[in-house]
Amino acid sequence: MSDGSLSQEEIDALLQGVPSFGNRQSETKKAPAAEPADGLKESFSEIPRKLQSAYVPALETLTGVSVVVKNIQIDEVNEETILTKLPDEVVYFNSSFSGFDRNSHVYLFSKETAKVVAEKMMGQTLSDISDATVSAIGEAINLFNSAVVTEAESRGVSLNPEPVVGNLNLSGSIGLPEGKFLLVSYDLKINGFDDGKLYELYSASTAGKLIGKTTASTGSQKSSLEDMLNMSAQPTPSSGMNLNQQASASVNQTGAVHPAVFSGLTDVSGLSSAEQSNISLLMDVYMEMTVELGRTKRLIKDILQMGEGTIIALDKLAGEPVDILVNHKLIAKGEVVVIDENFGVRVTEIISPMERVSDII
Known about the structure:
- The chain has 361 residues and is α+β, with helices and mostly antiparallel strands.
- The protein has helices at residues 8-16, 40-44, 46-63, 111-122, 131-154, 204-212, 214-231, 243-251, 273-279, 300-304, 353-360, and strands spanning 67-78, 89-94, 105-110, 165-170, 180-190, 193-203, 289-292, 322-326, 329-339, 342-350.
- Strands 1-5-6-3-2-4 form a six-stranded antiparallel beta sheet.
- α3 (46-63) packs across α5 and α4 packs across α5.
C-alpha cells in the first residue's frame, strides 16, 4: 500500500462485496453457485408436474389453441444466479401470498411468449407489449395461482393470495429478496410456436410450506377434534355420562345410529301470533331486488373485442318472462312494462318455496 495501489487480494475482496443482481456485467464472471436447499428441490419436484395439468387447460381455454408442455426443469437459484437462467426481457407477475415476502412467488413469460399468448387471447396481431397485453395475460396468471392454492389445500396448507401485479421488466430489475429460490421452467409449444417459455419462481419458504405441512396439518386437525370432544364432555340432565362416554356406548349398540328427521317447510300463515310478531321486526329491512333479462357466457378474447354497437345474444327468448331475484335468489317471474318514462315489471308468477329450495340444492 506504500505506492497507493491495491493488492490483488484487496481487489477480489472489494468485488465480492458488490451485489451483482441487476448488473448484466456480472455475467462475465462466474456466477456463485446456489447453496443446496437440503433436498427441497427433490421433494418439490412433483408439484410442478401436477400444476401443469391445470396450467395447460387454462391457457388452452383462454387462447383457444392447443398448448403442450414439452419439458419441465427445476433449478436452485438465488437473486444473483437467476440472471443466468432468464431472458433479458420478461413479462413479470408478482403473485405472492399473505405472510410471505413480496416476490416470493413470481410468474415470468419471455417477451416473445407473452406476445404470442396475448395475440391468441385478444384475437389480433400486436406490435409490442402494452398494458392491455399484460392485463390480458393476468387472467391466465389468476387461474394459475388458483391451481397453486388448490394444490396447497390438498396438502393441508392454507394460502391467501394477494392481488396479482404484472408489468414488462428487465429480468435484472425484478427485485428479489435475498435467499434461495426454486425456478421452474416450462418449455411450451403454443399452436406451432415452439419456443414458448414460462417460468415460475418460488422462494424457499413458499416451496417449503407447500411440501412440509401435511403431517403437521393432520396432527393439528386431530388435536382440534380432541379439544372439541373434551370441551363437549358435560353431563346432561337425563344421564350421568358425558358426551365421550355416550359416544363410546353408542358404538357398542347395534342399530344405535338413526337418520336425522327434519320438520317440513311452513309459511307465515302457519305460525303462531308470537312468531308472526317476531317476523314483523324484520319488515323494515331493505333487500336488493333485481330483474334479470338474461345471461350469457363469452370468452375473454370476445369480451376484449367488445365496443360500441356490439350486440350480445342472451339465453332468453323474445317475450319470455324475466326473472325477479331478491338478494340474488329467484322468487318470481314477470313481464317488462313501461310506467311513465321508467321501466317496470309486472309479476306473472311466484316461485313456490319447494322450487326455490330445489334450485338452492
